[in-house]
Specification:
Structural class: alpha+beta
CATH topology of one domain: Rossmann fold
Number of helices: 12
Helix content: 25-40%
Largest sheet: 4 strands, parallel
Number of strands: 19
Strand content: 25-35%
Shape: globular
Distance between the termini: 72 Å
């Protein structure tokens, strides 16, 4: 008797911008699931000629054109799921999924996460606690804007992420200076390519308090919290460079529940229904405040702090969800885990990194990864948006994981010329 033919593997489209840190982790997760992987980037891959059906080039900045291209592709090679990997691919991912009849967030909801003004307006309309705000044309009158806002305030571009261009101002003079710096960032070609939002500056009330990050997964509108990270370094400005994330959170359970509730309310207010979210919130005596929410998972290499069930990565969880494959559990490894995004201390060219062996030898440190390369031009915040690398730790208690990160970082020496 002939055996039944095995079912063809599911076909997954990953939208991976060339600027992302996350290619390796998502591709490895796809390999573990034995799917037929198709990778699309905004620039041609050097190997595309050898694998034209699996290495595609799509215009992420023109979602309609990308969707039309994928509709044509899918006539011969149907796609089972579309997963955008980073901010710049989320809108294109939603439009492509909609065009192919696949599960995804509504396009308008994803667009709202990519425009901070629209996000603020939707949150305000739904009564979600968030900073008071006003938007101004970057070519407008900064002095007039300075008279309208309250201090301290935070200025930020509408369309950028990773704290690029985010600056605190405590008075009118500081606002004018921040305005000029942000205007210069918005004039850069890569930002202009992002569209109309590149012509405005958002000014928000500064919200004091401790900041946390929530990693979650939406399934038909219901939010499951995958991890809640403390950010133990104060983020009070003038710039907002994130450094250390540690999970589980050390906040009281009542505060943690309020954070989960606020993130869920924000997702509903924006219209998000499916897939990963990454939310940034602040907690103070007045409650929990939604600062940012993105329709994608945590950035950089930070997801490497997370392990679920019998060793599933965050990326595998996301892919299983998108492909409607079974997920045995969303329970995270009970050990504390931490990551430090190594900040750029000053501008210049990276000449070398010393002390790597000593940093990796620190007890409880799992790895130190330097993502910047020798000869690279380093640009610190607020103009830059990248890090020197990442330090990872695991421990019994969150405080131990945090201490290991700080000790390892203290042993690194960056030679910048």
């Amino acid at each position: 008797m002939c055996a039944e033919p095995s079912a063809a593997p599911k076909r997954l489209l990953l939208l991976i911008p060339t600027s992302t840190y996350r290619t390796e982790d998502f591709v490895e997760a796809a390999r573990r699931l034995d799917v037929d992987l198709v990778v699309a980037s905004e620039r041609p891959n050097a190997l595309a000629g050898e694998r034209p059906d699996h290495l595609l080039t799509l215009p992420f900045d023109d979602a309609a054109a990308a969707a039309a291209q994928m509709r044509e592709y899918a006539r011969a090679r149907p796609i089972d799921a579309v997963v955008p990997v980073d901010d710049v691919t989320t809108v294109a991912g939603a439009v492509i999924a909609q065009a192919l009849g696949l599960r995804a967030n509504p396009v308008a909801a994803v667009q709202a996460t990519r425009n901070k003004l629209e996000m603020r307006e939707r949150l305000a309309g739904a009564g979600v606690p968030a900073p008071a705000f006003a938007a101004f044309a970057v070519t407008g009158d900064a002095e007039a804007a300075a008279r309208r806002v309250r201090y301290p305030c935070v200025l930020k571009p509408l369309v950028l992420s990773a704290s690029r261009g985010v600056i605190r101002a405590d008075d009118a003079g500081q606002l004018a200076h921040a305005w000029k710096r942000i205007a210069a960032i918005l004039a850069e070609p890569d930002v202009q390519a992002l569209g109309e939002g590149a012509g405005q500056i958002l000014v928000e009330d500064f919200v004091p308090g401790v900041e946390v990050a929530l990693e979650g997964l939406l399934d038909r509108g219901a939010l499951a919290t995958l991890a809640l990270f403390d950010k133990p370094d104060p983020l009070d400005g003038p710039f907002f460079e994130e450094t250390i994330y540690v999970t589980p959170s050390r906040l009281p359970e009542a505060s943690q529940q309020a954070i989960r509730d606020t993130a869920a309310r924000a997702a509903r207010a924006l219209g998000l229904e499916d897939g990963p979210i990454h939310a940034e919130l602040r907690v103070n005596a007045r409650g929990v405040w939604l600062i940012e929410l993105a329709a994608r998972s945590i950035g950089g290499l930070c997801s490497r702090t997370l392990s679920f069930g019998t060793g599933m990565s965050l990326e595998e969880i996301i892919l299983r969800h998108a492909l409607d494959l079974p997920i045995a559990t969303l329970e995270r490894d009970r050990r504390a885990a931490g990551v430090m995004m190594i900040p750029i201390p000053r501008a210049g060219v990276l000449r070398g990194v010393e002390g790597l062996d000593e940093a990796r030898a620190v007890p409880l440190v799992q790895d130190v990864t330097i993502s910047a390369h020798t000869g690279e031009e380093l640009v610190p915040l607020p103009e830059g948006a990248r890090y020197l690398g990442f330090i990872f730790s695991r421990a019994v208690a969150p405080a131990e994981a945090e201490a290991a990160l700080r000790e390892a970082h203290a042993r690194l020496r960056f030679v910048i010329g």
